[in-house]
Each structure stands twice: as structure tokens, then as C-alpha cells.
Design a protein that fits this description.
5 domains; alpha+beta; 26% helix; six-stranded mixed beta sheet; 14 helices; Alpha-Beta Plaits; Rossmann fold; Elongation Factor Tu (Ef-tu), domain 3; eight-stranded antiparallel beta sheet; single chain
């Protein structure tokens, strides 16, 4: 197809601003989906996406659209909105030439709107701002357009007004896409360079690669080279997403599609790798992607009835489809062999665990998540640790640094006081304040990442009556008065329960954690002591009382020494049982650290 008639673009927006619904209307108007097959969020084909009402994976689709008598090829990628999936958005933007920035007419510019606009600008993409939901009673589309101009610097004259639900204005938006967004710049006759922007594994076809052809042309039956792994394969199938897989004989520069080449090994494909012709390879690979910066880590262990190998195979398959997730082997004295997994956030971690159980049929025991810390030793060497259990001896540490994030909070102006109070409780440092409109303001704070990791977003929603939104990014590491809080069960430290926290909060947090832990661990035949300690100093203790059998019930009358003898015998037995007994710690106990603070 003529390159001047191709448009590659992503739909980006804050959560629930209507990206997937707008994609539905584009599919409907272009005729890519028959009316009888139409359903809401048709590109969200994962059960988890439909149940939670969010987009988790970016979805690519090719549409043939007629504008002013010309047939255009629209290669569209629908992206997630949640901050935990920003790596999906970054990958999608790298495969595009333009972006539709969707803004809710009732809510205006939100935190993720700003973050996504900057991400698109950093990729040098042409942006079309789209004010959606103009059909709602509370819509203020003109005010939203002024906000777009004020906050993002995009002229209000360029804004398109649509209702993705009813289809109002979508035809004009299609004309604007053809008119405003640039065509791809690749050369169809140059040596083949194709970017792998996603992949998935199929039991029958092997690895399926999602491609954006930057230069050259790829054909069925061609011998290709993956430049990262230096492996050659024969193309057995090529095609486009319409939105189901539709085979085609070739893909030329500027087009997107999928590739099947009987790639059996999961390790041979890397997202961001370059595909080229094996006979006439390109001189250098494409830039690819920056590796994701994992900030949240937790351990996955096979639960009872599962095997270590089954868990490893499931994690390998999942990491192929989700490039922002990583894992390495790990061993715990309490839980045995498992894996240390890296995530972009708590929602990302929750989604990965649920996908493991649903798609791979593997249930896991999951430890409480932690962030990465930097440790400076007395010999001036610096190392990163991903959990409290990995910390070296505290006597060798000169400085312990925690990750710092810059948080942009957009809120109604009457909630500023509540947010400042919340930020003070979480060791927040005020940076700046900017009014977006007379009633809405953007506050910028610097927080230790550990302070906002667990329940900060829930508290923010609570104090702003649901209207507050936030976006964050990591800015670096800073030294703090941090300590390692050990949790001891019967005087034995449990690495999976230990954590790093600020000294000022250690005692309160340790006491609260032990109270929750006491409720989760069932009573045993012997007394269980739960302790929180900093080094050798115990700062909190809770005791789980044992079951007690009345061994003197059958002693009627006689000397009291008979009863004492039986009680002493029982006491000795419990003491011996405590020495050799094993305390069963349930999975829920490892997650008590995540429960909201009282």
C-alpha cells in the first residue's frame, strides 16, 4: 500500500477516560467488526480485563478507512491507562507516528493525562487531543479544551470533540487522523528492519511476534535473522490483526502485523529486538527499548501440591507476554525454593499472580512486597538490595538509601489541606503548586517510595472524596534513618516477613504487624512467641496461647501432689514440643503487611 495512506497511532489517556470505547467506535465505523460481533471493549480479550474493567495489555489492530474517497490503513494500538502499565504505553508509542490523547469532558486533565502527553512528546509524536464523553449531563468540553491548552501547551483549536459511546464526532476525528497525523517514513526497498514490540506463546505455533516494519519488506517463506540472539528462522506465517489474525503475503515499511517462524524456545525472542533479512542483513539494529525499572519486588513460592519446575515454566511464558516483569531463582529457609519477581507496582504484581493462577493453573505463596534500596558499605562500595532479607550485616553498612518518587496530585482546591496533612504523615516534601482552573489544582510532592506503595492511593481517594488522581516517577535515592525490622516466630527470624522502615515508625509498625500476625496464625499445642526486633533489641511482642487439655479432670480427691505431677508432666511435654515443633504460617500472614493501617 502507498505509504502516504498509512497512519500508525496509539490511543493514550488517564484511567476510565474512554480509550477502549473509542477503539470500539473506530472498529465499528471502519467495518472491521460485523454488527453482530460487536461488544463493549472488544480489544480487551483477557478475562481479567473484562472483569476489572481496565486495559492490561496494549492491543494492536489494522483498519481500512475511507476518507474523502481515499482508502487509508489505520494501524491502531489501544493502551492501558494505569501507571503500573506505563511500560506497555512506552512500547506502543515507540511503534507509532502519532497519538490520540483522550480527555474526559467531565473530569478534565488528570495526572496520567499529563504523564502520557509527555511520553508522546518524548517520542516526537504528533498529538491530537480528543475531548470525550461530551454527551454526559455534567460535561464541560470547552473548559477541558482550555485546560489542555493551559497544562499541556496544545492549542485548543486542535481539539476534537467526540462521544465514543454514541459515535458523535468520531467521523470528524477519523478525518483529522488522516489530515493531521504524519505517514511513516520508512523505505520499503532498504534492508529489512522490523521492531518486535510485543510477543505471545502459542502451544501449536510457538512464539508469535508482533512487528512494526521500520524499513524494507518481509515476506512469507523468507529467511530472517533475530539480531539480538543471532538466530535464523524461516517465516511460516505473516498477517495483520483485523482484529483477529488475518494472514497476508507480505508486510512493507510502515505497516504492523504478526510473524510466526516456528520459534520454539521462549528465550530466543526479546521485546525490542530487531528482525532483519538473513541473506542481506541491516548494518545495525534498531534502538529498541530501555529495560523497565522494576521498583517493587516480592517472592513467589510454589504452594502445596505445586512443583518448582511448573512455576518456573509458567513464569517464563508470562514474562514473554509481559516484558515489564522479571524473575530470578530464590531460596528461603521458611518456604524453600522459589523466585524473586520484579514489578512496576502493586496492581502489576496482583495481575501477574492472578494470570499465573488462571492462564497457567499454578497457585503460589506470595511474600509481602518491598522496594529496592541502595546500601553504601564502609569500603565505599554501593549495592542494591531488593528485600530486607538481602541486607548485609548492619555493622558493615555506612549508609542506607531509599528510593524517592516525585508525585503529581491533581485535586479539587478544597482538598488541599487534607492532602498536605496526609503528605506530612508519609514524610512528603512539598515541591510546587499550580492551579489548572479556579477549582482544580496540581500539587507536586517528593515522597519516599515505600511510604506511598501500599495504601496511599486509597487514602488520597478518601480525603478527596474520589476526585483526586496521582502519577509518579522515580527520581533517585536518598539517605535516611532506616532500620531493618526483623519478625521472630519462636525466636527464629522469618526472612520473608522482615522489612525495612524508618526508625521513627518502627515500633508502631512492628506492634501493629504482630497484632495482625497473631490473628492469622492458628493456635498450636505449644505457646508461640511473636517478636519484632531491631538488631538484638526486641521492641514489641505478642503471644499466641497454646491449646490446653485438662489432664486433671479425672483426679477426684486425694493429695494435691497427684494433680501437680500431671500438670508438670504436661508442661514438660509442651516444652519438648516447642523445641521440635514447626509453626505453620499461612499465606494470609505474609500479606498482612499490605492491609490498610488503622
Amino acid at each position: 500500500m502507498d505509504q502516504n495512506l498509512i497512519r500508525n497511532f496509539s490511543i493514550i489517556a488517564h484511567i476510565d477516560h474512554g480509550k477502549s470505547t473509542l477503539a470500539d467506535r473506530l472498529l465499528q465505523i471502519s467495518g472491521a467488526v460485523a454488527e453482530r460481533d460487536l461488544k463493549e471493549q472488544i480489544l480487551d480479550d483477557m478475562d481479567l480485563e473484562r472483569e476489572r474493567g481496565i486495559t492490561i495489555k496494549a492491543s494492536a489492530v489494522t483498519l481500512d478507512v475511507v476518507v474523502d474517497g481515499q482508502t487509508y490503513m489505520f494501524n491502531l494500538i489501544d493502551t492501558p491507562g494505569h501507571v503500573d502499565f506505563h511500560y506497555e504505553v512506552d512500547r506502543a508509542l515507540a511503534a507509532c507516528d502519532g497519538a490520540l490523547l483522550v480527555v474526559d469532558a467531565t473530569q478534565g486533565v488528570q495526572a496520567q493525562t499529563v504523564a502520557n502527553a509527555y511520553a508522546a512528546a518524548n517520542n516526537n509524536l504528533e498529538i491530537i487531543p480528543v475531548i470525550n464523553k461530551i454527551d454526559l449531563p455534567g460535561a464541560a468540553p470547552e473548559d477541558a479544551a482550555i485546560e489542555v491548552e493551559h497544562v499541556l501547551g496544545i492549542p485548543a483549536d486542535n481539539v476534537q470533540f467526540v462521544s465514543a459511546k454514541t459515535g458523535l464526532g468520531v467521523v470528524d476525528l477519523i478525518a483529522a487522523i488522516a489530515r493531521v497525523l504524519p505517514p511513516p517514513k520508512g523505505d520499503p526497498d532498504a534492508p529489512l528492519q522490523a521492531l518486535i514490540f510485543d510477543s505471545e506463546y502459542n502451544d501449536y505455533r510457538g512464539v508469535i511476534c508482533y512487528l512494526r516494519i521500520m524499513n524494507g519488506t518481509i515476506r512469507k517463506g523468507q529467511k530472517i535473522l533475530l539480531m539480538g540472539r543471532q538466530r535464523t528462522y524461516l517465516v511460516t506465517d505473516l498477517g495483520k490483526f483485523r482484529p483477529q489474525m488475518a494472514p497476508c503475503p507480505q508486510l512493507a515499511a510502515g505497516e504492523t502485523g504478526y510473524l510466526v517462524a516456528s520459534i520454539k524456545s521462549l528465550h530466543d525472542v526479546t521485546v525490542g529486538d530487531t528482525v532483519t533479512d538473513a541473506g542481506h542483513p541491516a548494518t545495525e539494529p534498531l534502538p529498541g527499548y530501555q529495560p523497565p525499572q522494576h521498583m517493587v519486588f516480592c517472592d513467589f513460592y510454589p504452594s502445596s501440591g505445586e512443583t518448582y519446575d511448573a512455576l518456573r515454566e509458567a513464569l517464563e511464558r508470562l514474562s514473554l507476554n509481559d516484558a515489564s516483569f522479571s524473575f530470578v531463582a530464590q531460596h528461603s529457609d521458611a518456604l524453600g525454593p522459589g523466585f524473586r519477581c520484579g514489578f512496576l507496582g502493586l496492581l502489576h504484581m496482583d495481575i501477574v499472580q492472578e494470570r499465573l493462577e488462571r492462564e497457567c493453573g499454578v497457585s503460589v505463596v506470595q511474600t509481602a512486597p518491598s522496594v529496592t534500596y541502595e546500601v553504601v558499605l564502609h569500603d565505599d562500595t554501593t549495592k542494591r538490595v531488593e528485600s530486607a532479607g538481602d541486607l548485609p550485616d548492619m555493622g558493615t553498612i555506612a549508609e542506607l538509601r531509599e528510593p524517592i518518587v516525585e508525585v503529581a496530585i491533581i485535586t479539587p482546591a478544597d482538598s488541599i489541606g487534607s492532602i498536605m496533612q496526609l503528605a506530612e504523615q508519609r514524610r512528603g516534601e512539598f515541591k510546587k503548586q499550580e492551579y489548572l482552573s479556579p477549582t482544580r489544582v496540581m500539587l507536586t510532592y517528593s515522597f519516599p517510595f515505600n511510604e506511598i506503595l501500599y495504601d496511599f492511593y486509597d487514602k488520597l481517594k478518601s480525603v478527596t472524596r474520589g476526585y483526586g488522581t496521582m502519577d509518579y516517577h522515580v527520581t533517585g535515592y536518598r539517605a535516611g534513618d532506616l532500620v531493618k525490622l526483623d519478625i521472630l516466630v519462636n525466636a527464629v527470624p522469618v526472612d520473608a516477613l522482615s522489612l525495612i522502615c524508618h526508625r521513627s515508625k518502627a515500633e508502631a509498625r512492628g506492634r501493629r504487624f504482630l497484632i495482625k500476625l497473631r490473628r492469622q496464625i492458628e493456635r498450636h499445642q505449644f505457646e508461640i512467641a511473636l517478636q519484632a526486633a531491631i538488631g538484638s533489641k526486641v521492641i514489641a511482642r505478642e503471644t499466641i496461647k497454646p491449646f490446653r487439655k485438662n489432664v486433671t479432670a479425672k483426679c477426684y480427691g486425694g493429695d494435691v501432689t497427684r494433680k501437680r505431677k500431671l500438670l508438670e508432666k504436661q508442661k514438660e511435654g509442651k516444652k519438648r514440643m516447642k523445641t521440635i515443633g514447626r509453626v505453620e504460617i499461612p499465606q494470609k500472614a505474609f500479606m498482612t503487611v499490605l492491609e490498610p493501617e488503622d
